[in-house]
Amino acid sequence: MSELLKATDVSVHAGAEMLVEPVSLALTAGRPFTLLGETGSGKSLLAQAIIGTLPAGLAAAGQVTLAGRALDLARRDGHRALWGRLIGVLPQEPWLSLDPLMPARAQIAEGHAFVRGLSWAEANAAADRDLAGLGLQEAADRRPDQLSGGMAQRVAFAAARAGGARIVVADEPTKGLDIGRRDEVTRLLLDEVAAGGALLTITHDLGVARRLGGELAVMLKGRVVERGPAAEVLAHPRHDYTRRLIAADPASWPQVPPRPGTGAPVLRAEGLSVSRGGRRLFDGLGLDLQPGEIVGIWGPSGCGKSTLGDVLLGLARPDQGRVTRGAGLAPQRFQKLYQDPPSAFPRCLALGRALDDLVRLHRLDGARIPQLMSRLRLSPALLARRPAEVSGGELQRLALLRLLLLDPVFLFADEPTSRLDLITQAEVTGLLTEVARETGMALLIVSHDPELLSRSADRVISLASPETAGPRLRHQAA
Amino acid sequence: MRPLTQAILYRASQAVLVALLVGMLTFLMMQALPGDMAFRIAAGRYGYDAVNAEAAEAVRRELGLDRPALAAFGTWLWDLMRLDFGTSVISGAPVMDEIRHQLGASLQLAGAALALSFLIGPPVGILAGLRAGGWLDRTLLVVSTALRSVPQFLMGLILIVLVSIQLGWLPAAGYGRPVHFVLPALTLALGLAAVSARVARDAMAAVAASPYYAFGRWKGLSEGQLLRRHGLRNIGVTLVTYLGLQFAMLVEGVVVIEAIFSWPGIGHALVHAIFGRDVPMVQGTVLLLGLGFVALNTAVDLTARWIDPRGRGAGEARS
């Protein structure tokens, strides 16, 4: 196995503060290397230091050796000549990373033409071959807005590699992708490794780390806490943090004991049909929600999961069918928990103020706030802060607190944990289901992770259309 | 190309609406101006000294000024539909001929100013935007703010004093030779470039900070290749839209600048026509300017569509 890149004592700091402590690693042909960690663990910074893409204001130290050249990372100018030629960087959000006005072929061909020095005719032909190799012949003349997320990911992949780079660095390549696309991207990366390339992947997704295999380094607070062959680390974690991380993976969650529904339904939907942009999302969907019941909704991106929630809440109209609410229930007892907690709070207002405003508006009992705070394991000190000054997990729990003040009988949770880290996700989802059981609130929880749903819901509704057959779900009902 | 035909139809109906409104408003405003119209027209024809009540009466009878206003407006509209703009009540020449001559002179000046501003503004702005926060960017902010806050008539006078009187390099006023273009065009261009440089700078800074620009770098492209492939087209829509807007603002500037540099253009002509109550002339000029705006907007729309063919809301279709 040949070593394609060797990084020695790479560290990152902002002024005097050390963000990533010195790490050494080597990338070899044919063996993936994965950095696993949560947001803020420094995994992206480490990778950015190695490939020279650190944001301004951060400084790196250490040395990187590749292709017989040694680069001092303290100097910022050494990497430019390597990009595209030796190092291919796979961008985090492919949709935004492709030129919005340029067809896919041209975006790939420019690597062949400018970096490899082919003529434009040859470069275009090479780009067409790349596209065909990824099963994207038909995408050659399309602009990014005409590509699906998965297609854009593959186009970006081809574009990143067109210059002939054999070392691929992928920063969160599966961020925001549903499970089918996630596996597709992982496969693409593995193909590259099998062809003799080297791969450095940065991910927070345990499933991706497991599938990639190879070497794994787990990062926490700027330090590598554990490293070794991926299979071994994941099977026999030694560090406490790795253990917690693995326990937080939905695949290893304990099963919520299913509970037969009791009482009159709080919400009943009959024969719902909804289409968007001329496409039928679902047809003849019926649903009964009883107090305290937890129902999961699964489906690939764009299948209408969020739309269904909006219809049930009366925020959108169905083409056909109707939604009936339990008699005598106030409208504000039907609530929604949003995907992105920061955008669900006023940015410039202290969190406590935002809650007080709600209490005043609906004449609620403000004395319940401290009690709910301790129930949701939130520190009272958070109330004095603004949304940007608390973590995503805390903010999502505060959002939950805010709507619990209204005594909801129905809660639509729209991918409530998709922006959160694994451990936080486990915590928030756990609290959500516990609260549903305690208060008798019917919970409709949307997720693209079938494991998460089958372990936390009484039953799961799949919105996958027949042609995109979803994964097999336990307790499936429709 | 259904949306394209739709856009053109929309603009065509807008043109009709503009014609009606402009005709009506100018007509009403001319009626509302104080003073006896016949007297003013007679003064325009024969000079103030030679005018008396008889001459005014003759004019009134000749032009039928005592007819009801509505009938006069109807006649004008009817003539317009036959593409007849009428004749100037002062000079007696067809309005179309007068306008053609004066509009030509104005368009030459406006075109020269726009071209000059285009050569100065966007390139400086792009350079500043590529290094947002750099010395060029900071200098540009100061210079463009300063230039923008100087009214155009003052800028014109400053240039005349500086370049014509102090240095004696260029004539202070006149029309006919290329040197006559320099000062008035430069006066207009400086004001335009001050803003278009800032617009180009902001657009370029946004593009240069975008993920696709960074990705282009990681693909191995040089800065020049990046600018040509991913920079220019992406700032194109903003720039073209803004330049179209500037052309409209130019008309306002042209009126002032023509007065200062004695340029025989349409602004000049319009002011004289209003003084002389030359209603057909005013209506014709304003109508042509109005239709010019519609045509310009159409051109801007079509160019923007050509640069960025993405449909509106295409990005929302998926998330």
UniProtKB/TrEMBL annotation, chain A:
Gene Ontology terms: cellular component: plasma membrane
SUPFAM superfamilies: P-loop containing nucleoside triphosphate hydrolases (SSF52540)
PROSITE patterns: ABC_TRANSPORTER_1, ABC_TRANSPORTER_2
Family: Belongs to the ABC transporter superfamily.
Keywords: ATP-binding, Cell membrane, Membrane, Nucleotide-binding, Transport
Matching InterPro entries: AAA+_ATPase, ABC_Ni/Peptide_Import, ABC_transporter-like_ATP-bd, ABC_transporter-like_CS, P-loop_NTPase
Species for this entry: Paracoccus tibetensis
Name used for this protein in its record: Peptide/nickel transport system ATP-binding protein
Cell compartment(s), UniProt: Cell inner membrane
Cross-referenced Pfam families: ABC_tran
Limits of the ABC transporter domain: 5-246, 267-477
Molecular function per GO: ATP binding; ATP hydrolysis activity
Main subcellular location of this protein, as a coarse class: membrane
Membrane topology (UniProt): Peripheral membrane protein
From TrEMBL, chain B:
GO cellular component, one term: plasma membrane
A GO molecular-function annotation: dipeptide transmembrane transporter activity
UniProt subcellular location: Cell membrane
Topology in membrane: Multi-pass membrane protein
Segments passing through the bilayer: 12-30, 109-130, 150-169, 181-200, 235-261, 281-300
Major subcellular location class: membrane
Matching Gene3D superfamilies: MetI-like
Domain ABC transmembrane type-1: 103-304
Pfam families associated with the record: BPD_transp_1, BPD_transp_1_N
UniProt KW keywords: Cell membrane, Membrane, Transmembrane, Transmembrane helix, Transport
ATP-binding listed as a keyword: no
Family: Belongs to the binding-protein-dependent transport system permease family.
PANTHER family: DIPEPTIDE TRANSPORT SYSTEM PERMEASE PROTEIN DPPB-RELATED
The protein's name in its UniProt record: Peptide/nickel transport system permease protein
Originating organism: Paracoccus tibetensis
